[in-house]
Specification:
By secondary structure, the protein is α+β, with helices and mostly antiparallel strands. The protein has three helices and five strands, in the order E-H-E-E-H-E-E-H. Strands 1, 2, 3, 4 and 5 form a five-stranded mixed sheet that branches. The longest helix is centred in the first third of the chain and has 12 residues. The radius of gyration is 16 Å and the shape is globular.
Length: 125
Amino acid sequence: MRAIVGFGRTVLDLSVTEAFYRDGLGFARIAPPEPVPVAQAEAMGLADRRATQLRMRLGGQTVIFLAVDPPGAPYPADPAATDPFFQHLAIPVRDMEAAVAQLARLAPTPISRGGPQQLPASTGA
């Protein structure tokens, strides 16, 4: 494998998600929210629900956010990185202080303990 072109995440609210990823992380909308194609919804076991997707991009990476109505079970409180439902997205930045300041304006609830995680210098980051 040489690269991952894109991936998806399931979210509760596409408008809140879009605002966070756009304003806090610099993502851009590729297209307005759209219904998930019927065949895809059926393959995902969502034929009896309304599924809507939003495609966004950061650099060369695409993320498809999926919202389902009615929604499934809520995300459990206080997840650990070892929980099977845990979703992780890492975005390398050149200026950690600027990135943290930009995110702080949106007041998200952090899941990392001890502040932002920095890669060791040996990774080339």
